[in-house]
Amino acid sequence: MRAYIESYGCTLNQGEACEIRDLLLSLGWSMASDPGDADLSVLVACVVIESTENRMLKRLRPLSSSGRVIVTGCMATARKEAAQAVLPSAEFVPPGDLQSFAELVGRAGLPSVDVSGGDVSGFSIVPIATGCRGECSYCITRLARGDLRSRRPEDIIAKVAYEIRGGPLEIRLTAQDTAAYGLDIGSDLVRLLESVDEIEGDFRMRVGMMNPNSVLPLLDRLPGAFSDARVFKFLHLPVQSASDGLLSEMGRRYTLSDFEKVVSAFRSVVPELTLSTDLIVGYPEETDEDHEANLALVRRVRPDIVNVTRYSPRPGTKAFGSGRGVVGRKAKDRSRELTEARFEVSLARNERLVGSQRRALAAERGKNGSTILRADDYRQVVVVDDLPLRRFYDVVIDSATPTYLFGRLEGRH
Known about the structure:
This protein is of the alpha/beta class. The protein is built from 14 helices and 18 strands. The chain folds into three domains: 2-104, Methylthiotransferase, N-terminal domain (Rossmann fold, 3-Layer(aba) Sandwich); 123-351, tm_1862 like domain (pyruvate-formate lyase- activating enzyme, Alpha-Beta Horseshoe), CATH 3.80.30.20; 357-409, CATH 2.40.50.140. It has helices at 11-26, 50-63, 75-78, 80-86, 98-104, 140-145, 153-163, 189-197, 212-215, 222-226, 244-250, 256-269, 288-301, 328-351; strands at 2-7, 30-31, 40-45, 69-73, 91-92, 123-127, 129-130, 149-150, 169-174, 203-207, 234-236, 274-281, 305-310, 357-365, 371-375, 380-383, 392-400, 405-409. Helix 13 (288-301) runs parallel beside helix 14 (328-351). The termini are far apart. The model has no long low-confidence stretch (mean pLDDT 93).
């Protein structure tokens, strides 16, 4: 039996897709590169914004060439009816529910899954939780995944230990809100990082997105955990808006001052930190003054990465009845202005590194025979060489763009 898997959206979706692949391999399935050559197609679908949902719906009919389609990811719970309208024969599994998936493919109970993609990739995604404790008024993911459900620390540690047996590896710890990890099981993210750090081996950990309000109770301990040599100096901390009024409307449970307090605390302990944040443009009732505050935030805080997303009303969310937000040319112009400001800041921060020498881990294949490496601050370093993955290299930075660095191996010209 052959299966074909497509995954879209966040790192958590991607990690769960890998777990589905490993489950199927452990049950004797093989992987197909085309749905037409498969007995089963699996769509791990994202519906975070309307355009992404539409893309998922368009993929359903082509995937049905395999004869059987299982939809999982957030679409399986939050937008099941929309998918059924397109493909009535589709089957559905809630996101992250491997037990139900195993039963659907004919296995009563989960087998011992001991398969890894680490031998063909320089990174491994390790989900640590699903669901969250938030009440964001615009978020369909919260509706899809429900309340926080943290995985057992011993299971996470065993997964990381297994993955790194083949040599140096990037471990991507992921969840909807990693800083909320453990609130439901009497633990927390700092203790988890300390436990993973006790594993012997040469690896690097990237800690996934965390909300400012979840970080605040950990602020006296979490930045110190990031100073560990095996933790990438990378913080993904979404602010979403520089307006306290809009943050309240969004149900974000923190203020702009809280966000900047977290950033300052991390930068004081980890000066080389790479800061990534998110901004929603055109939220209902967003004013010109709110937009100017967003621009000022980018120029003042100077994040290395800003993910700019135009507001997309999602069915079932509290904000869905608040109108469609700022529409038309004004929303496009605001998005463009923020993106230009973000690239200006990112380029300046990256250009500071030209001429420096960095040690970096080869994590992914790039385009046209290149390799993508990750430095300790998690910046992408592109080397135009087909390098073996899962190895560290000393590279010299030759040039920079707003999104990555170009480098060469030390001693090469």
